[in-house]
Amino acid sequence: MSSTEARRSIATVCLSGTLEDKLTAAARAGFDGVEIFENDLVASSWSAKEIGEHCAELGLSIDLYQPFRDFEAVPPDVLARNLRRAELKFDVMDQLGVDTMLVCSTVSPDAVDDDDLAAEQLHLLAERAAARGIRIAYEALAWGRFVNTYEHSWRIVRRAAHPALGLCLDSFHILSRGSDPAAIRTIPGEKLFFLQLADAPRLQMDVLQWSRHHRLFPGQGAFDLTAFTGHVLAAGYRGPLSLEVFNDVFRQADPGPAAVDAMRSLLGLQETLGSADLPPAPALAGHAFVELAADASAEPEVAEALRGLGFAETGRHRSKPVRLWQQGTARILLNSSGPATGASVGAVAVESADPVASARRAQRLLAPILPRSHRVDEADLSAIAAPDGTSVFFCRTGTADGWLGDFTETPAVGEEAGVTGIDHLALTQPFDHFDEAALFYRAVLGLEPEPVTEFAAPFGLVRSRTVADPSGRVRIALESALLRRGEWAPAVREPQRIALSTGDALASARRMRELGAPLLEIPGNYYDDLDARLAPDPSLLTALRQQSVLYDRDERGELLHFFTVVLGGRVFFEVVQRIGGYAGDGAVNSPVRMAAHRRQRRDA
Amino acid sequence: MSSTEARRSIATVCLSGTLEDKLTAAARAGFDGVEIFENDLVASSWSAKEIGEHCAELGLSIDLYQPFRDFEAVPPDVLARNLRRAELKFDVMDQLGVDTMLVCSTVSPDAVDDDDLAAEQLHLLAERAAARGIRIAYEALAWGRFVNTYEHSWRIVRRAAHPALGLCLDSFHILSRGSDPAAIRTIPGEKLFFLQLADAPRLQMDVLQWSRHHRLFPGQGAFDLTAFTGHVLAAGYRGPLSLEVFNDVFRQADPGPAAVDAMRSLLGLQETLGSADLPPAPALAGHAFVELAADASAEPEVAEALRGLGFAETGRHRSKPVRLWQQGTARILLNSSGPATGASVGAVAVESADPVASARRAQRLLAPILPRSHRVDEADLSAIAAPDGTSVFFCRTGTADGWLGDFTETPAVGEEAGVTGIDHLALTQPFDHFDEAALFYRAVLGLEPEPVTEFAAPFGLVRSRTVADPSGRVRIALESALLRRGEWAPAVREPQRIALSTGDALASARRMRELGAPLLEIPGNYYDDLDARLAPDPSLLTALRQQSVLYDRDERGELLHFFTVVLGGRVFFEVVQRIGGYAGDGAVNSPVRMAAHRRQRRDA
Questions:
Q1: Of the listed ranges B324-328, B403-407, B539-543, the one predicted with least confidence
Q2: A532 chain-B contacts, CB cut-off 8 A
Q3: Res B294 pLDDT > 80
Q4: Which DSSP symbol is given to B450?
Q5: Distance (Å, whole) CA A332 – CA A317
Q6: Is B530:B541 a contact under the CB 8 Å cutoff?
Q7: Tens of pLDDT along A466-512?
Q8: Across the strands, what pairs with A103?
Q9: Whole-angstrom distance, CA of residue B139 vs CA of residue B153
Q10: pLDDT band per the 50, 70, 90 thresholds, residue B376
């Protein structure tokens, strides 16, 4: 079997719900098999036999029964008890129809540090297992009492020398300890009984807590799973690629989307391994437009703000209540057919070198394809739904049959204010979908996630992660509260930001004020502190203060930026001037901006 | 000034919201003063002068301006910049009207490991400060680059020898490193410029992350703050007791209750120091009754279940639609005047040796006192509101003027089933109020909190902490989801459990089944696993399986317990038999019970 045909499995512990909920979600997401986590089975009202039958009906194989703990290197009386325990679990496995059991390296106070004894007792267990047609996959826990590296577990398995005893390799246990996975290539493939995959962020904490609460699906964290899995496949492993992810958020999230997220992570990993048959992600060349859905009460407020920001209405859609507003290459579609929920970003559109290929790739990566109604003479835009429900369009604005043809030109009235295009977007993600969103944009659009950052905002900690194409022309900041917010949060709920670029922030701010833009006032304390922190040139400081423009600096450049008030309850604009190679989005200034938006709410 | 008069302060960083929100909450909770956290000031629309005036109006002194970072042991050019920065902050402090600035030990890459240089530069800073009437309180961060113990910060302050330079002691920085605080007594009291108090759970993680996310108010964590604060007071410290708690939950919770929680923590600490003028907590002798509020649709279901559990209706309230159901000393009041929200625990009542003193203490500890309407011939029960809104009554059931006199006796009809009393209650706490609830029961009722435990339930991790009186006769398990639940949670929301005691769980279960109690069925897989794990005697295992009774064992004894289905959407009963000194509540079996309740919901 070539690696292109590797089966994809998932441990039931990855998903929320009862066993019934989990199996349904795994099957719907297209997994080939599952690992049955013992606690899920114990709490199930189905007998082991019924679970086996149900999996078969769903088209799921059962690839592993796990975990069996604290078996080896114990005194004879404990060994006898442990063998009884194993035999009872073999009975369950027999009913389930699963032939491989995971045995974790011991953490028991009963155990002794004796590799020979461990090997001898594992040999005995394998002998008992073999008599039942079962194999034992021995795994070194990163916090195993004596055995906590894969090299050590391999020495014991080799010493035990039983055909029914092999290794289970788990990327978390190996990479969290900083072990070099290259030596996996020296292990014979037929002794690699099972492979469990998990990613994780780099955290400075107890490895057991890290493992049990913060694992992620491949592509969401900081581990190099492509290299790791490459070593395992090179050694000759032929079993499934199986996810085992303990994550506090996934454990309480709807298992349907979580299973899709999991499957997407494996498809993405297989692509980087060169073994997935996916159309490559076409190059993206920038933001084509942002569509704002606004209800009848919000529409005039947004239109007025756009005019103040220097936008002009330049087109009307031929068949829908949608107006095109434009300034430079920044295009905002204002759709007034939205439900009565104020204003929000309904769609983002990116310029794709090949929109049809972009959509085909998205579909292969399980992105929901959005049905579009359009007249025969209108452009057939390809659109998918992001995890937060936002529509993502792929388009080529410059072409003859492009989407602009759906609009009749109207004479542009109004004055410009220096906006040249869209710099980035910032979209608050639903709490349960933060990591899923980053992987979605990475896998589906081919954007690169930057590291996760956190900052203390007035109403709680905020987590942020930007995904961007290599040229930085498509850039989306994903934000979410670190803890799901409760009733106390008099801040803007799920805010969305459209950041426009300018070559001269101070001039744009001055012009926009003249045009009546509803710009956000920044308090004087901010400028006093800015003076103390960064000591900008006094004349610059005075100008920033006069225009309520915020400022930041890094080793590569400077950022000047300012904001509008919140429009229609949720959306606001930012205007950004980047000087030199400034890389971030001015997150250091976010708490000040948030407090100012809070005042706006109180004043309203 | 004696320690009984110590002023109580709170750092604005402890609370959620803008500076305006925080100051209002601190003043309402009765704090004497605040530490102004710089970020809160920077984001405020009030000028420093206006903030100072506003605090004065609220009756709050400003006791500290903080933090000033990365000052000392740097090259001359950096020193010049740092002094400029300090002078600008002195300007702000002058406007605020605060005379003490916190300077944290450096973490800067610009700094060098040179105590003499640090002392020399801090002397210079103190000289500049003194000229403005300001004092510098130097604090060793637990993760300071060179200075990270209070002993080291004291050596530097002593060497600097400036009257305007002293120490800030922070209990977290000192106790998190395991430093011995006893040597604080050797520091002259006049050099202790400030004291910051924070508790914390014992966590195995990076100390900076631990500090910035997981601090708690005194009495909520694992630190011995009584001993710590005792050393500081013995040294002659005469400043305020000031809370500085960085906590992810408090940072996003309503600041009103959080400030009350904070104040309660300081009152409790002062009591253990012998310096709070609080009436002592009267002894508690058990649960007097539990009142269930049930609407018209839930009332018959609950009454039927009570009958099935062997309860009999023994009394009717003289003036309210409340029935008393009793079995042994277990008393359930069924109040059918509740709003249409199914069934829930409306009140818990404890037997107090002195109900009036219990209520007086509660009031002093800022517990809301509930107004009670009662007729002149009815008992005047003292009641307060717990953080989850449950009423807590203090009563003496046995006395002539006791609450039972409010009920007319009715002839007891029905058969008993071996229930002897109430073993414990388990009440789900609102997410933002978990730690507050533990402190509430500790401080107000004098219950002792047991360690926090966590377990993986089908719909996410659950955190649990039991508070109990020393005799174990009053016992309340506080539970909460580790992460606030979102829309996916097809489990029982905010469940409440009333655990009854029996001397023979198997006999009670059998009898209750005969009486028609709606007992929860436990799946066979549980018993197969129980056999493998604990190998109970085969005849016991068979009986447990037949009666759907669950089992656990610890080093001191055994637990047999079983459950009803969920009644009225939220409440269920448990029946508990404790054998020997079994200490817990069978939490190991909770996931199985939760999955069974989930099936009940799906079947419904």
A1: B403-407
A2: 84-85, 88-89
A3: yes
A4: P
A5: 13
A6: yes
A7: 999 998 899 999 999 999 988 887 777 889 999 999 999 999 999 99
A8: A68, A138
A9: 7
A10: low
CB B239, CB B284: distance < 8 Å: no
Confidence band (pLDDT; 50, 70, 90) for B3? very low
pLDDT at A295 over 80: yes
Of the candidates B39, B248, B526, the beta carbon closest to that of A591 is on B39
Beta bridge partners of A330: A327
- According to DSSP, residue A479 is labeled E
Cα→Cα distances A550→A91, A510, A520, A574, Å: 67, 14, 11, 11
DSSP class per residue in B379-430: ---EEEE-TTS-EEEEE-TTSTTSGGGGEEE----S---SEEEEEEEEEEPP
DSSP state of A134: -
**Could you tell me the residue ranges of all domains in chain A?**
3-272, 284-409, 419-603
Region A302-312: mean pLDDT is 98
Tokens of B340: 């249409």
A488–B16 CB contact, under 8 Å: yes
Question: Does the pLDDT of residue B426 top 50, yes or no?
Answer: yes
The annotation status of A139 as a binding-site residue, yes or no, is yes
CATH fold for domain B3-272: TIM Barrel (3.20.20)
Q: Is the pLDDT of residue B254 over 70?
A: yes
Residue A323 to residues A343, A371, A393, A403, Cα–Cα distance (Å)? 14, 21, 17, 13
pLDDT tens, residue by residue, B21-36: 999 999 999 999 999 9
CA distance to partner chain B, nearest, from residue A523 (Å): 5
Of B18, B84, B591, the CB nearest to A458: B18
Residue A266's closest CA among A18, A17, A33? A33
Contact, B575 vs B562, CB < 8 A?
Answer: yes
C-alpha angle A393/A398/A404, rounded to 5°?
65
The tokens for B262 are: 């904070």
- Distance between CA atoms of residues A231 and B475, nearest Å: 55
Q: Are B248 and A41 inside 8 Å of each other by CB? A: no
A529 closest CB neighbour out of B42, B252, B487 = B42
Lowest-confidence segment of A82-91, A591-600, B301-310 by average pLDDT: A591-600
For B87, which residue in chain A has the nearest alpha carbon?
A532
What does the CA dihedral A124, A126, A130, A134 come to, rounded to 10 degrees?
140
CATH assignment of B284-409, given 3.40.1160.10, 3.20.10.10, 3.10.180.10, 3.40.50.150? Answer: 3.10.180.10
Binding residue per annotation — A196? yes
Res B231 pLDDT > 50: yes
Cα distance from A548 to chain B (closest Cα, Å)?
A: 12
Here the tokens at position A257 are 């989307």
Rounded CA-CA distance B152/B168 in Å is: 12
Look over chain A and give the mean of its residue pLDDT values, rounded to a whole number: 95
The whole-angstrom separation of Cα B363 and Cα B352 is: 16
Q: ω before B470 within 30° of 0 (cis)? A: no
The gap from C-alpha B190 to its chain's centroid, in whole angstroms, comes to 34
CA B132/CA B118 separation, integer angstroms = 21
Q: Closest partner residue to A483 among B252, B459, B461, by Cβ?
A: B252
Torsion angle, alpha carbons of A52, A54, A55, A56, to 10: 90
B2 pLDDT more than 50 = no
pLDDT at B412: 80
Residue B4 has pLDDT above 60, yes or no: no
Task: Tell me the CATH number for domain A419-603.
Answer: 3.10.180.10
Task: Tell me if A255 and B488 make a contact (CB, 8 A cut-off).
Answer: yes
CB A501 within 8 A of CB A423: yes
Give pLDDT, residue B136: 98
